[in-house]
Each structure stands twice: as structure tokens, then as C-alpha cells.
Amino acid sequence: MSDQLEDFIRNNRSQFDDREPADRVWSGVESSLGADKKRVSLWNYTPLWRAASIILLALTGYLLVPKQQAAVQRDNSIALGDFKDVEAFYTKQISEKVDLIDTFKKNEGLNGFTRDFEQLEAMYMVLKEEMKNHPSDKVKDALVLNLLVRIDLLNQQLHRLEDGEYDNKKTERKAES
After folding, report:
1. What is the pLDDT of residue 55?
2. How far apart, in whole angstroms, are the C-alpha atoms of residue 109 and residue 165?
3. I need a surface site. Which of 2, 132, 142, 146 has the fewest CB within 10 A?
4. How far is Cα 43 from Cα 52, in angstroms, rounded to an integer?
5. 116 Cβ contact list (under 8 Å, min separation 6)
6. CA triplet 147, 152, 153: central angle to 5 degrees?
7. DSSP string, 36-61
8. Please, are residues 70 and 128 in contact by the beta-carbon 8 Å criterion?
9. Which of 67, 69, 90, 66 lies closest to 148 in space, CA to CA?
10. Are 87 and 143 a contacting pair, CB within 8 Å?
């Protein structure tokens, strides 16, 4: 059927080409086209959507950036607060053990211990300064580890002193002399 229609249009094309629609038909078509161009809805207005998306993107960026910085600062202050409690506990233990060792300090052979202890204390001060400048969990863990190593070193020293290891060395030196 479509073949017959196509054949009919090809055969009679000259009859279709010489006729033009009436002027009132063209004016109706033109007026309907012109009305659509003037009457664009806001939903189909592309520049408006572009401006709205730019404003939304800028507003989202503005609102998210300060919240991320505040969250980092809040986490750092929590880490710093937690560390102060841990530091107070371990510092108290260290000072008690140092006082015990000071009672035995008259003995010889404590030079290696005091040197190691002073190095650990110097490293602790550097880490503490880093914690003030850039608080983080990594620095906090390093500080706690330093405190634990110092306590362990003090415990080893106390055990040596209690066992009389230094007294034995002192008597051996006197016997050799």
C-alpha cells in the first residue's frame, strides 16, 4: 500500500509543486511558531538551570569545607584531651619510680641508665611539642609508647637495684683493688 502511495506521489509530483497554500494558512503557521518562541517556560530555560546549578555547587562547597575543618579540629582536640589523661597517669608512675631510684643513686653503674632515660625524655619533649603544633593519633601513640618505654626502663632499673646487682659490682671492684 505504501508503495502505491509513493508511486502516486512520484507520478503526480508536478501537480503538487505548482500549488502553494493560501496566505492565511501561512500566517497561521507563522503566528503559531512565533508564539512558541516567545512563550518559553522556566522549566525549559537552559540559562536559568545553568545559573542555578552554579549557585548550588558554590553553596555546597562553602557549607562543606568549614565543617570538614571543624571535624578535624574536633578530632585533634579529643586526641589531645585523651592524651592529657594518659600523660598524667604515666607521669605520676614515672616520678614515683625515679624517686625510688634516687634513693639508690649513690651506687655506681647508673650512668648507662641515666643516659638512656635522658634521651627518652628529650625525645618525649620533641614529641610533646609536635602534639601541640599538629595533634594527631599518630603523635599521641608515639608519646604513649615513649612513656611506656620509660616506665619499662625504670622497672628494669628498680629490679636490678632490688636484686643488689650494683652492690655486687661495687664489692667485686673493691675486692679487685
Report:
1. 92
2. 10
3. 2
4. 12
5. 153
6. 95
7. HHH---GGG-HHHHHHHHHHHHHHHH
8. no
9. 90
10. yes
Closest to 153 in 3D by CA, of 81, 68, 93, 78? 93
Query: What average pLDDT does range 8-37 have in this prediction?
Result: 76
Residue with C-alpha cell 598524667?
Answer: 88
Render the burial of 47-64: b for 16+ CB within 10 Å, e for the rest: eeeeeeeeeeeeeeeeee
100 burial type by CB count under 10 A (0-12 exposed, 13-18 middle, 19+ buried): middle
At residue 177, the pLDDT reads: 47
pLDDT digits (tens, 9 = 90+) for 44-96: 788 888 999 999 988 888 887 766 556 666 666 666 667 777 788 888 888 88
Q: Cα 55–60–61 angle (5° rounding)?
A: 100
Q: Is 154 exposed, middle or buried (0-12, 13-18, 19+ CB in 10 A)?
A: buried
